[in-house]
Design a protein that fits this description.
about 200 residues; alpha+beta; Pnp Oxidase, Chain A; seven-stranded antiparallel β-sheet; 4 helices
Length: about 200
């Protein structure tokens, strides 16, 4: 079967995209409000795209009632944020931060998530996250007035000690158990892995 994107409603296009573009990494973004309240929210329209400079991008849509989300408001004001990644131990807490919290209630405080200071920006990171990247806003792109694409430049990385081989510059995959987003309330584990030998390319006769 096939669809022309223009023949589908916005909701139908969302369902087609999120049902097949799987699994998606999740940016668990911390930002700080004007009164110092730390916000944490997950976004699965997310990925990294470049290493020089280190760039990431995630999409923030409006709330169902049309209001802007706290994450966007905070980033527009401060120009900085932290992308934290969640593993299996933090997955449920990450999911809970997707609930509706008013600006004066910070998700980390409400849910008992520990914070740690960042090294180069004012926004704190989630202390127990396996990996976190401090970001400065690189570019904001408005999409149809109801969604913003937030591009951030990573300026500092935090890695849980036991996950990283500093000399080899490699992750210990047997110790790292990231969680991925499927759709609706469904997530996936990433421990069922396949390894292929290096691709050989075209062989000379």
């Amino acid at each position: 079967m096939e669809y022309a994107a223009s023949d589908l409603t916005q909701r139908e296009r969302y369902k087609v995209l999120t049902s097949f573009v799987l699994p998606r990494p999740i940016a668990w973004v911390t930002s700080t409000g004007p009164d110092g309240v730390v916000n944490a929210a997950p976004f699965s329209f997310f990925n990294v795209f470049c290493e020089d400079p280190p760039l990431c991008m995630f999409a923030v849509n409006r709330r169902p009632d049309g209001r802007h989300k706290d994450t966007l408001i905070n980033i527009q004001r401060a120009g900085e944020f932290v992308v934290n990644l969640a593993d299996e131990d933090l997955a449920r807490a990450m999911h809970e931060t997707s609930g509706d919290f008013p600006p004066e209630i910070g998700e980390p405080g409400y849910l008992g998530l520990k914070l740690a200071p960042s090294s180069k920006i004012a926004v704190p990171r989630l202390a127990d996250a396996p990996w976190a990247m401090e970001c400065k806003t690189w570019k904001l792109i408005d999409v149809n007035g109801d969604r913003q694409l937030i591009m951030g430049e990573g300026i500092h990385f935090h890695i849980r000690d036991e996950l990283w081989d500093r000399e080899a510059m490699r992750v210990h995959m047997d110790r790292y158990h990231p969680i991925g987003r499927m759709f609706a309330d469904r997530y996936c584990r990433t421990d069922d892995r396949v390894v292929f030998p290096a691709a050989e390319g075209a062989q000379k006769a």
